[in-house]
Amino acid sequence: MVRLHPCVVIGAGVLGAAVAAGLAGAGMRVTLLDADQPGRGTSRWSFAWVNSNDKGPRPYHDLNRAGLRAWAELAPGLDGAAWYRPVGNVELATDGAELSARVHRLTEWGYAARVIEADEAAVLEPALFYPGRGAAAAWFPAEAYLLTEPLIERLVTSATDHGATVMTGDRGRVTSLAPGRVRTAAGEVLAADEIVCCAGRWTPQLTALASPACPVPLVSWDTPGATAPGLVVRVGPVRAEGPARLIHTPRIALRPHPGGLLHLEAPDAAVDLHTPQTELRHWAGELLQRARRTVRGLDDAAVAGHQVCVRPMPADGQSVVGRLPGAEWLYVAVTHSGVTLAAHLSRLIAAELVTGAPAAELAPYRPDRFAGTAAVSISGHATGR
Ligand SMILES: Cc1cc2nc3c(=O)[nH]c(=O)nc-3n(C[C@H](O)[C@H](O)[C@H](O)COP(=O)(O)OP(=O)(O)OC[C@H]3O[C@@H](n4cnc5c(N)ncnc54)[C@H](O)[C@@H]3O)c2cc1C
Fold this sequence. Notes:
The chain is about 30% helix and about 25% strand. It contains nine helices and 22 strands. Strand 11 and strand 12 (about 190) form a beta hairpin.
């Protein structure tokens, strides 16, 4: 195979691993760096719901929708049985008008969505406690969830099978950046024609090394009260009659998780990286109770673990993908909904870097829209998936 030129990818979460696999598969000589082991950042704890359910404006909806297709296409050739779960999503709502309006908009846009009766919800997901005649419900058959740990493992293996090198720990921790040069905490300097930063929530720290004047502002995550962190709770064991699909209600979101567990999140669990453990444990117990009231199979379940994890949320909620203004030698990719988007974005990124031709689909997401923004990390609301 023809080797094009050396490329360093910083960050081996779902996005960086997919980008590394895409670039290596396209013939680039890739070095993938991570300060930790691959997949130990946000991706590890993500709800990992692949969807474009409530995402706008239309181009961003379409970008996410392309994400659904990209995973479906990738799965057969990447041992999808280990990580791809196209099980569909049942949503119960208190605001039937909002749900109907959303389903209407989504179907107009060609997205698979249908308002359903409570009876059908109970048939689609027998583990659901009957929500009551007249309850507002909808069915989103094309949505899926991914198991990010086995997925990232396979993406990294795909990259190494195509000749990529993976460096982790101090050998993978990037401490300084310059045009064509990446220095790691182990003191090594790597020469690279292309440097791609996929460092998730740590992206502003990396871009500041390259160009302090051109920040990539993320919703703040490290201060008390920050909205980017979210609580994830895993409970089990789940009996055989437990749920098989994604389920969303106004009080709880849940899906199966390996090891006989359920993965739970709640929209109102307002926690941050400073929330005391006692409060986190309280929330974990509360989410278990909510899940017990929602689905069957949790009679023997206890909290198996909880974790506060951080959404890498660009300040305007939209993906940031492209060359950093003032430091064009650094290509940046950071996004919320990164699990939904990684397969599709990685294809677009690999095509741009290999051919040099900009992808029209990425035009709304270029980092130069933040040029002149003073803060590196700003306040804002981090919602949605
Ligand atoms: C609670 C929660 C629920 C979510 N639910 C969904 C969902 O349902 N659907 C969805 O699509 N998205 C969801 N997301 C968002 C999604 O999980 C993220 O967008 C995605 O995981 C980001 O992946 P990433 O690869 O960009 O970042 P990460 O997975 O965080 O990877 C970044 C990597 O960069 C490495 N790194 C950092 N600094 C350095 C350095 N200096 N040198 C070398 N390596 C470095 C880190 O070690 C890490 O491995 C959710 C997020 C949260 C927090």
